[in-house]
Amino acid sequence: MNYDQAKEYSLIVPWKTTTCSRGSECLCRMIVPVEPIYYTNLESDNTYEYCVVGNGVLDQTTAEHITLLHNEHCERVRKETINSMIVLNEKEVEIFEKFLTNKYKKIVRKEVD
Question: Which residue range(s) make up the domain with 16?
Fold first, then answer.
């Protein structure tokens, strides 16, 4: 997975806020995917963890607000997608929901291995 793919994927997965390397005494907060997303720099073949918003950019309140809005949006889209699948039976909906949540995890694991 390259940087652009990691960025695109990050838009459909849940986020969380976390402290920077200075810890909780620092006022800034980072926004990262709940499940780490790794990408490869094509020029150096190094693998990096994708970060939605890096350290020193947002204060805690703003970072938490943005994260909450993003996660609510993702959940709403997920529910709308599942609700639009009325023609499927319950088992088919369950399988498709698992597919949606696991689709990119398999790609990430394959790229990192």
Answer: 3-112
Count of alpha carbons within 13 Å of 102, Cβ hemisphere only?
7
Residue 38 corresponds to which tokens in the numbers above?
């790794």
Task: Tell me the C-alpha distance between 43 and 64, whole Å.
Answer: 34
pLDDT tens across 47-70, in order?
999 999 999 999 999 999 999 999
Using CA atoms, how far apart are residues 57 and 80, in angstroms rounded to an integer? 33
**Given this model, what pLDDT does residue 103 score?**
58
Q: What's the structural domain count of the chain?
A: 1
Q: Give the per-residue pLDDT at 112.
A: 44
| pTM for the structure as a whole | 0.69
Looking up tokens 């709403």, which residue turns up?
Answer: 76
DSSP SS3 for 66: helix
Backbone angles phi, psi at 100, to 5 degrees: -60, -40
